[in-house]
Specification:
mainly alpha; 79% helix
Protein backbone atom coordinates (compact mmCIF):
# COMPACT_ATOMS: atom_id res chain seq x y z
CA UNK A 1 0.00 0.00 0.00
CA UNK A 2 2.80 2.44 0.84
CA UNK A 3 4.63 1.59 -2.38
CA UNK A 4 1.48 2.40 -4.35
CA UNK A 5 1.14 5.69 -2.45
CA UNK A 6 4.81 6.56 -3.09
CA UNK A 7 4.48 5.76 -6.80
CA UNK A 8 1.33 7.82 -7.08
CA UNK A 9 2.80 10.81 -5.26
CA UNK A 10 6.07 10.48 -7.18
CA UNK A 11 4.17 11.17 -10.40
CA UNK A 12 2.83 14.48 -9.09
CA UNK A 13 4.55 17.64 -10.31
CA UNK A 14 7.23 18.89 -7.94
CA UNK A 15 5.42 22.16 -7.08
CA UNK A 16 2.36 20.17 -5.98
CA UNK A 17 4.56 17.87 -3.88
CA UNK A 18 6.25 20.91 -2.34
CA UNK A 19 2.85 22.30 -1.36
CA UNK A 20 1.82 18.94 0.12
CA UNK A 21 5.19 18.64 1.88
CA UNK A 22 4.90 22.15 3.31
CA UNK A 23 1.48 21.26 4.73
CA UNK A 24 2.84 17.96 6.07
CA UNK A 25 5.76 19.74 7.74
CA UNK A 26 3.38 22.07 9.56
CA UNK A 27 1.02 19.24 10.54
CA UNK A 28 3.89 17.28 12.09
CA UNK A 29 5.13 20.42 13.85
CA UNK A 30 1.65 21.10 15.26
CA UNK A 31 1.04 17.48 16.28
CA UNK A 32 4.34 16.71 17.99
CA UNK A 33 5.52 18.58 21.12
CA UNK A 34 8.80 16.64 21.00
CA UNK A 35 9.45 17.78 17.43
CA UNK A 36 8.63 21.38 18.38
CA UNK A 37 11.07 21.25 21.30
CA UNK A 38 13.85 19.86 19.11
CA UNK A 39 13.02 22.32 16.34
CA UNK A 40 13.28 25.24 18.79
CA UNK A 41 16.68 24.04 20.01
CA UNK A 42 18.03 23.39 16.50
CA UNK A 43 16.88 26.72 15.11
CA UNK A 44 18.35 28.48 18.13
CA UNK A 45 21.69 26.74 17.59
CA UNK A 46 21.59 27.54 13.87
CA UNK A 47 20.89 31.20 14.75
CA UNK A 48 17.76 31.26 12.59
CA UNK A 49 15.59 34.26 13.30
CA UNK A 50 12.25 35.59 12.12
CA UNK A 51 10.86 34.39 8.82
CA UNK A 52 13.73 31.96 8.10
CA UNK A 53 13.10 30.16 11.38
CA UNK A 54 9.41 29.64 10.64
CA UNK A 55 10.04 28.76 7.00
CA UNK A 56 12.16 25.82 8.15
CA UNK A 57 9.03 24.03 9.43
CA UNK A 58 7.46 23.80 5.98
CA UNK A 59 10.84 23.27 4.31
CA UNK A 60 11.41 20.10 6.31
CA UNK A 61 8.18 18.66 4.91
CA UNK A 62 9.12 19.82 1.42
CA UNK A 63 12.39 17.87 1.65
CA UNK A 64 10.50 14.68 2.43
CA UNK A 65 8.13 15.29 -0.49
CA UNK A 66 11.06 15.99 -2.81
CA UNK A 67 12.61 12.66 -1.86
CA UNK A 68 9.43 10.96 -3.10
CA UNK A 69 9.76 12.86 -6.37
CA UNK A 70 13.45 11.98 -6.78
CA UNK A 71 12.99 8.29 -6.06
CA UNK A 72 9.61 7.59 -7.63
CA UNK A 73 9.13 10.10 -10.46
CA UNK A 74 8.96 8.31 -13.80
CA UNK A 75 10.49 9.80 -16.90
CA UNK A 76 7.88 8.31 -19.21
CA UNK A 77 10.00 8.11 -22.37
CA UNK A 78 12.89 6.48 -20.49
CA UNK A 79 10.57 4.07 -18.69
CA UNK A 80 8.98 3.04 -21.98
CA UNK A 81 12.39 2.52 -23.63
CA UNK A 82 13.70 0.52 -20.66
CA UNK A 83 10.53 -1.55 -20.46
CA UNK A 84 10.98 -2.50 -24.10
CA UNK A 85 14.59 -3.52 -23.40
CA UNK A 86 14.18 -5.13 -19.98
CA UNK A 87 10.53 -6.13 -19.72
CA UNK A 88 8.97 -5.84 -16.27
CA UNK A 89 12.30 -5.58 -14.42
CA UNK A 90 12.09 -1.78 -14.40
CA UNK A 91 10.73 -0.66 -11.05
CA UNK A 92 12.03 2.85 -10.36
CA UNK A 93 13.44 5.55 -12.59
CA UNK A 94 14.58 8.81 -11.04
CA UNK A 95 15.91 11.91 -12.74
CA UNK A 96 19.42 11.13 -11.42
CA UNK A 97 20.58 7.68 -12.60
CA UNK A 98 22.76 7.09 -9.51
CA UNK A 99 19.84 7.87 -7.17
CA UNK A 100 17.56 5.66 -9.24
CA UNK A 101 19.97 2.76 -8.85
CA UNK A 102 20.29 3.41 -5.13
CA UNK A 103 16.51 3.63 -4.62
CA UNK A 104 15.91 0.51 -6.72
CA UNK A 105 18.54 -1.44 -4.79
CA UNK A 106 17.16 -0.43 -1.41
CA UNK A 107 13.57 -1.12 -2.45
CA UNK A 108 14.46 -4.56 -3.81
CA UNK A 109 16.14 -5.55 -0.56
CA UNK A 110 13.22 -4.58 1.67
CA UNK A 111 14.44 -4.21 5.27
CA UNK A 112 17.89 -2.68 5.28
CA UNK A 113 20.48 -3.31 8.01
CA UNK A 114 21.82 -0.16 9.68
CA UNK A 115 25.30 -0.50 8.16
CA UNK A 116 23.83 -0.77 4.66
CA UNK A 117 21.66 2.26 5.31
CA UNK A 118 24.75 4.19 6.39
CA UNK A 119 26.63 3.07 3.26
CA UNK A 120 23.70 4.35 1.21
CA UNK A 121 23.76 7.60 3.20
CA UNK A 122 27.47 7.99 2.40
CA UNK A 123 26.68 7.62 -1.31
CA UNK A 124 23.84 10.12 -1.07
CA UNK A 125 25.99 12.65 0.81
CA UNK A 126 28.81 12.32 -1.74
CA UNK A 127 26.30 12.99 -4.53
CA UNK A 128 24.92 15.95 -2.59
CA UNK A 129 28.41 17.36 -1.93
CA UNK A 130 29.28 17.21 -5.62
CA UNK A 131 26.03 19.00 -6.44
CA UNK A 132 26.65 21.69 -3.82
CA UNK A 133 30.19 22.29 -5.08
CA UNK A 134 28.87 22.64 -8.63
CA UNK A 135 26.14 25.05 -7.44
CA UNK A 136 28.75 27.21 -5.69
CA UNK A 137 30.83 27.38 -8.88
CA UNK A 138 27.79 28.08 -11.06
CA UNK A 139 26.26 31.01 -9.15
CA UNK A 140 27.40 34.60 -9.01
CA UNK A 141 25.09 35.60 -6.16
CA UNK A 142 27.01 36.07 -2.91
CA UNK A 143 23.89 35.20 -0.92
CA UNK A 144 23.37 31.92 -2.79
CA UNK A 145 27.08 31.08 -2.47
CA UNK A 146 26.82 31.55 1.31
CA UNK A 147 23.70 29.39 1.43
CA UNK A 148 25.31 26.62 -0.65
CA UNK A 149 28.49 26.84 1.44
CA UNK A 150 26.46 26.35 4.64
CA UNK A 151 24.65 23.38 3.13
CA UNK A 152 27.98 21.98 1.91
CA UNK A 153 29.45 22.20 5.42
CA UNK A 154 26.40 20.35 6.79
CA UNK A 155 26.75 17.62 4.15
CA UNK A 156 30.45 17.25 4.95
CA UNK A 157 29.59 16.84 8.65
CA UNK A 158 26.95 14.25 7.77
CA UNK A 159 29.42 12.39 5.59
CA UNK A 160 32.03 12.42 8.35
CA UNK A 161 29.49 11.08 10.87
CA UNK A 162 28.29 8.28 8.58
CA UNK A 163 31.84 7.24 7.68
CA UNK A 164 32.88 7.28 11.35
CA UNK A 165 29.90 5.12 12.25
CA UNK A 166 30.81 2.62 9.53
CA UNK A 167 34.30 2.39 11.08
CA UNK A 168 32.76 1.71 14.48
CA UNK A 169 33.54 5.15 15.90
CA UNK A 170 31.09 7.55 17.49
CA UNK A 171 31.45 11.28 16.97
CA UNK A 172 30.48 13.60 19.78
CA UNK A 173 29.27 17.18 19.16
Amino acid sequence: MLITLFRTLGRWPLPALHALGWLGGWLVWLASPTYRRRWREHTRRAALRGWARWASVGAAGQQVAELLHRCWSPDLARVQRLREELGDEVKIVAADASLAALCAGLTARGGVPEKDAHRAAVDIEKTDIAGREEAIRATRSARLKRLQANLLRASLRHLKAFEADLEGQRLHP
